[in-house]
Write a structure and sequence with these properties.
The chain is α+β, with helices and mostly antiparallel strands and about 450 residues long. It contains 14 helices and 12 strands. It has a 6-stranded mixed beta barrel with strand order 2-3-8-5-7-6. Strands 9-10 form a two-stranded antiparallel ribbon. Helix 2 packs antiparallel against helix 10. About 40% of the residues are buried.
Length: about 450
Amino acid sequence: MFGYYMLMAFHSLKRNKVLTALMILAIAVGIGASMTTLTVMHILTGDPLPGRSAHIFYPQVDPIGDDKDSNEPPDEMDYHSAFDLWSAHRADRQTLIANADIHVVASDTHSPALKLHLLATTADFFSMFDVPFQYGQAWSAADDESRARDVVISDDLNKKLFGGADSVGHMLRVRDSALRIIGVLKPWRPSPLFYSVSGGRFADGDTADFYMRPEDIMIPFSTGQDVVGNQFMPFTCWHAFDIKAQSNQQEWPCVWVALWVQLNDDAKVAAYRRFVTDYAAQQMSLGRFNHAGNTRMRNLMGWLDFNHVVPSDVKLETGLAIAFLVICLFNTVGLLLAKFLHRGGEIGVRRALGASRTAVFAQCLMEAAVIGLLGGFGGWLLTLLGLWIVRRQPTAYADLVHLDLSMFLLTFAAAIAATLFAGLLPAFRASRVAPALQLKTL
């Protein structure tokens, strides 16, 4: 019976090619627009660390004296708080993070100086975040302590300076220091760049920069303090100060260091929360904090949600595209209704020959499903075109946009489901055609 209905559906579609083409076009345009934006949304809302994100946490304390316990603590930490918590080693893994822009020269190449993003971090960064290596390896905890002059570079920088060859052992000059390359990463593109996310609540939805590429240079945190000096980017400072008098950035009244910890079970999570709370209370008793109740510790996905990482324009475009799909479906309902009722005589004959209302209803829905399938094919082509256009936009996430298998299958499933939904009313009306009345008109 299914094959017969399918054959009848294709036969019916050929009768009125213009009407059929209009319905397929309406479905294709609606599906193409909505799947383009849904694919972008799907990529931007994904888990950047699948299988690990539930164990990665972002603790916060509040050194700002004017704040209240009801406020949110600053998005990053002052140096002393971050270093105290990190050096206590109370988590399964922990890492410090700070960023800077820096000029870099490859000593044994003729490449000009490059201005690059630098990440100063600690040894656990690579194992915590499952960072893949192409050549060499990461530095060790001992290298952190000894302020080793080591550096790990990205695959992009390795291609730019060394043509993609194994560059382990080559030297880079960062400001006035020579650093030895000990590792080269494989292509690595987390979405978003989760470990650098902060300040999203102040961005008014303009959060596309959270999806920028990872830093090209990574060096031990202790080495970064020697090499970068006071050039790390502060998140905020809570009062004015004399930079000359406080020449060491560690003493600035600013927050500029992020701390991430890995906690592998619920008991350790609860223990670390108490540890952070006790630390804040201790600092208050020492006179460094004015209040101690303002601490937080969210897991990775909670921190991304708190920062509203998905840009507001992407959300708006997705809503508009879905509304456009609904309009296309309403047009399809009207066209299907006109098409089915125009065949009232044929349906009346079938009913007079014994076809049940259910059979007529099923036949009409099969015809709608075939239209949806063809519309889905057109929608898939339009989705590829839409994503190609998105990839050419000057946005930080443009290179991430692609159609994966799940969204490819969803394109056809959505097209067929939407068309079946649109065909319910026309099919119901067609199944209610009175055979006697239609036969009189023949």
